[in-house]
Design goal:
This protein has 714 residues and is an alpha/beta fold. It contains 27 helices and 21 strands. The two termini are 25 Å apart.
């Protein structure tokens, strides 16, 4: 890129929230407003020193800094250990942001570098649990992509939406029904700042016309290391009160409101970058929610040259579309009347016939506006998110793609998802530079030489922490339901640490088959309650408020957990979010995943568990077909009928998983289990990190598209 400074410096932003921080520690401002601290262990230690209890409860630096009393600051000023920690953390932070020796600079010669950044458009981002701009895997993946692009030094800018009410908070009532609440996200207590107009210095606004009204769109800047993420917002004073809620709720149920939201993301995102004079070299449309950006970009090309085919070709040449949807019918599709109503005058250069021709659904019929079809027709590269999913995308969309879909398997950001004791183990065995090796399959063999007792100790400590946190959540839930003090004390005795613990945690869509393990209740009850070798299962996950079948599945699991023979062995933990997910993937003994193939596009939670030494017990679908090697967990072939799959699952659990876990040496260490855990860690870190994933995106898509070495249909 031309040397215009970092991307962060190119996007003017408003002031930080005033905080009562002594001058000696004023750089805490800078640290709090960059999410780098969330994946740096030393930075988390720094926040914890300010108030250990409050940090454990909240993990929000801006809330924490509001609460630190003057006496604490005075004590810290005289504490040399805190002074050293403060100085070391800030030095590391400054070196990270200013660093010029990155994977990008080392591996991409100046003559191959894009002339502008990669623009990454996505409807959701999972950066941190206090930023509820995500619902599940798509958002977590996008968040990990931002962090990794920052780590690698790749010039990338994210475009999303500032959902002031976020995604819903889940509570489960005493009967097992999911309840939904949407709480306000207070901007002053989040590390975001309003984006300013580079000319006037006032809050930046662009206009998106919807149904005859100009809707003003502002933006907030969220700094993720070196990467800025711009979150678009219609709740601004200039707008009509009826337009301000467009960006309030992630995956709002109303179809017209959802279309307006996606028009703001797509059209508004392109216009915001234009207003900032940022010209991307590559546009990465991550799932169809952001596909309307392509219509806006096409309109821009037509304003320059009225040749439609040439304009379409120019848009395609710089566009990558990543499809996460497991079935063609699962794409975002609208009635043409909605599109005509809200979009007729938004991009007048793209008339109704052209617009509808580009987005006609080959699955749902000619009267449906399919954002997935639009994105495929307007992209040079369409990719699935695992090798198997790439094959599925080819089967479903090959005609539109004009050949085979690409396949870039998802990955996870280890610095975010590893437990602290696992990190310390890697520092001792692989080296202090372990994170720099994540883009390469080499260098992980040292993990296999770790003494079994040491790895088992690491796992036990993380599992104990997980179970303590879950008991606390269960106690709060039961208290809300009016449980007696004796019942609350009962919770303290549940989830024993020496019991084999399975975790099933993911979105409660029916194809993920959360209830498969209860197909034969008598058999699974006998397995779980074996007095010599007992087991327990922890469930967590949300169903979309419009998904009644998914909500009924949650109710069924809750009812089973309250049934004789399952009480004390089956638990449902409410309000699955990034914080709970971190506890579960770092502490689970075994990770359950039993989707109905080929509907699991990827499934990154199993990667995260494996990276911490958890063993996957999973149907061979998504990433696990690639990851399973016979020594790092258990892979179950799908037989289609649920009963057959359940029988195979029971056989594996009863005859392989349980015996392997409880077969101990004289010191109480399950050596066979630990050997498999080592293999799981090597598998996940060598092949399924987001560093490997983003490098593949750069090598296979970003760089070829930016330099013109990849053309549509090539």
């Amino acid at each position: 890129m031309p040397d215009r400074g970092s991307l962060l410096s190119q996007i003017p932003a408003g002031p930080k929230t005033p905080l009562p921080i002594p001058r000696a520690f004023h750089r805490l401002y800078d640290l709090a407003y960059n999410m780098w601290w969330s994946w740096d262990v030393g930075a988390s230690d720094l926040w914890a020193r300010l108030s250990p209890g409050e940090w454990a409860r909240n993990r929000n630096p801006l809330s924490l800094l509001h609460m630190v009393p003057g006496s604490t600051w005075e004590a810290l000023a005289d504490d040399p250990d805190f002074g050293d920690l403060y100085a070391d953390t800030l030095a590391r932070f400054d070196a990270y942001l200013a660093g010029t020796d990155t994977w990008y600079t080392r591996n991409c010669p100046a003559d191959r570098r894009p002339t502008g950044p990669i623009a990454y458009l996505c409807a959701e981002y999972g950066i941190h649990h206090k930023l509820r701009f995500y619902s599940g895997g798509l958002g977590i993946l996008a968040g990990d992509h931002m962090k990794t692009a920052s780590d690698l030094g790749i010039p990338l800018i994210g475009i999303g939406v500032f959902y002031r009410r976020g995604y819903f908070q889940q509570a489960v009532d005493p009967d097992g029904w999911q309840q939904h609440t949407y709480n306000w996200i207070e901007p002053t207590r989040r590390p975001i700042r309003e984006v300013l107009d580079p000319v006037t210095g006032l809050p930046l606004r662009v206009q998106v016309e919807l149904h005859g009204r100009d809707v003003a769109v502002g933006a907030w800047r969220l700094d993720v290391g070196r990467v800025p993420v711009l979150l678009l917002d219609t709740d601004v004073p200039e707008n009509d009160p009826d337009d301000r809620p467009i960006t309030h709720i992630l995956y709002v149920r109303g179809r017209e409101m959802r279309f307006c939201q996606e028009a703001v993301l797509g059209v508004g995102g392109v216009r915001i970058l234009e207003a900032l004079d940022i010209v991307p070299s590559v546009w990465h449309v991550n799932e169809g929610h952001a596909a309307l950006s392509l219509i806006e970009r096409l309109a821009g090309q037509l304003r320059t040259d009225g040749d439609v085919d040439a304009a379409i070709d120019r848009v395609k040449r710089s566009t990558l579309f990543t499809l996460h949807t497991p079935v063609a019918a699962g794409n975002e599709v609208y009635d043409m009347e909605i599109v005509d109503k809200y979009f007729a005058a938004t991009v007048p250069e793209v008339d109704r016939d052209l617009r509808n021709r580009l987005a006609t659904s080959h699955v749902q019929g000619p009267d449906r506006f399919d954002l997935g079809a639009l994105a495929i027709r307007m992209s040079a590269i369409t990719n699935g998110v695992s090798k198997r999913h790439g094959e599925v995308v080819t089967e479903q969309w090959g005609t539109l793609i004009g050949g085979d879909a690409a396949a870039i398997t998802n990955g996870m950001h280890p610095e975010t998802w590893l437990g602290r004791n696992t990190v310390r183990l890697l520092e001792r065995t692989v080296g202090a530079d372990w994170a720099e090796r994540l883009g390469s399959p080499q260098g992980w063999e040292a993990i296999r030489d770790v003494p079994a007792k040491d790895l088992w100790s690491v796992h036990r400590s993380q599992k104990a922490l997980m179970l303590r946190r879950i008991r606390a959540r269960l106690r709060d839930e039961f208290a809300r339901h009016g449980a007696s003090p004796d019942r609350l004390r009962w919770v303290d005795d549940q989830l024993p640490e020496d019991r084999l613990t399975f975790v099933f945690a993911r979105r409660f869509a029916t194809y993920k088959r959360a209830g498969l393990i209860f197909s034969d209740r008598d058999r699974i009850r006998r397995i779980l309650t074996d007095p010599a070798r007992p087991a327990q299962i922890i469930f967590a996950g949300k169903a979309h408020p419009a998904d009644r079948d998914g909500q009924r599945l949650i109710k069924e699991i809750v009812e089973i957990s309250q049934t004789d023979g399952f009480v004390g062995h089956v638990f449902f933990v409410e309000n699955y979010d990034m914080q709970l997910a971190h506890s579960l993937v770092t502490g689970a003994d075994a990770w359950l995943n039993n989707p109905r193939p080929p509907l699991e596009a990827s499934g990154t939670s199993g990667m995260k568990s494996a990276a911490n030494g958890g063993l996957n017990v999973s149907i061979l679908d998504g990433w696990w077909i690639e990851g399973f090697n016979g020594k790092n967990g258990w892979g179950i072939e799908d037989d289609s009928p649920d009963a057959a799959d359940a029988s195979k699952l029971y056989d594996v659990i009863e005859h392989e998983v349980v015996p392997r876990f409880y077969d101990r040496n004289a010191a109480g260490v399950p050596e066979g289990w630990v050997e498999m855990a080592k293999e799981a860690i090597v598998t996940a870190l060598a092949g399924f990190s987001s560093h490997r994933m983003v490098i593949e995106y750069f090598d296979q898509a970003y760089c070829p598209l930016a330099t013109g070495t990849r053309t549509p249909g090539a």
